[in-house]
Amino acid sequence: MNAIILCGGLSTRLGDIAKSVPKILLEVKGRTVLDWQLEKLKKLGINEIVLAAGHLAETLRREAGPERNGVKIIYAIEPKKLGTGGAIKFAWEQAGNPGAPTIILNGDILAAADLAQMTARLRPESAGVLMGSRVNDASTYGTLIYDETGRLSEFREKEGLAQPGYINGGMYLFTEKMKKHFPPADEFSIEYDVFAKLNDLGIDLDIHLSDEPWVDIGLPERLEWARNNWPE
């Protein structure tokens, strides 16, 4: 299995907190977000990852190194801004196991969900599985609509409805079939240009629902919450 972590964003919402430090290197409970994520990936037997880097890429390479916590790191540094989808497409080309399923994590996510349970949901004939994480206020996230079999039927990006729901947890497992649904352009959004168009594109995706703790540390108040409350 391949693994990609997306960590090339500009971190503008965090202001000075991430002005000189990539979000994925911010510390929560004595460990960086990268270390938390590597721990989860190692439990899947993954010993090599691709970091899709852009903003502060050289800082990330210097601090994280070629190997960390027993995991080899490959750096896929964007030649230009590629968007979330373009970054996945670019990094996937540098993954070491061609044809194998690829797990993709957003680099600003902490999730207590068991990734092994998500990977167990994968149907070889499908394009993949998305993590659906439950939050009390889904207003600032993409929400997932699914049928009784757990297949994604609609992806609604940031509707602004302050109500509980299962949102895009920023953790994906894609098979090679997903590549055919990527736009030909280098730069595109996985949320707006792929997930939101799944019916038009005929994409077959499943949802793994999780009620475990989850947080996006991309805002100062959410980072502070994680630093005070994230379960060790």
Q: How many distinct helices?
A: 6
Structural class call reads alpha/beta
Helix content: 10-25%
SSE order, one letter for each helix or strand: EEEHEHEEHEEHEEEEHEEH
Q: What ranges have pLDDT less than 50 throughout 5 or more consecutive residues? A: none
Number of domains: 1
Q: Estimate the global geometry from the Cα principal axes.
A: globular
What is the residue-mean pLDDT, rounded to a whole number? 92
Number of strands: 14
Q: Quaternary arrangement of the chains shown?
A: single chain
Measured on Cα atoms, how large is the radius of gyration?
Answer: 16 Å
| Beta-strand percent range | 25-35%
**CATH H-tier superfamily:** Spore Coat Polysaccharide Biosynthesis Protein SpsA, Chain A
CATH class, named: Alpha Beta
Description:
The protein is of the alpha/beta class and 232 residues long. The protein has a single domain, classed as Spore Coat Polysaccharide Biosynthesis Protein SpsA, Chain A (Alpha-Beta Complex), CATH 3.90.550. Helix content is 21%, strand content 29%. The chain has six helices and 14 strands. The strands form four sheets. It has an eight-stranded mixed sheet. Strands 2-3 form a two-stranded antiparallel ribbon. It has a two-stranded antiparallel sheet with strand order 8-14. β10 (143-146) and β11 form a beta hairpin. The protein is globular, with a radius of gyration of 16 Å.
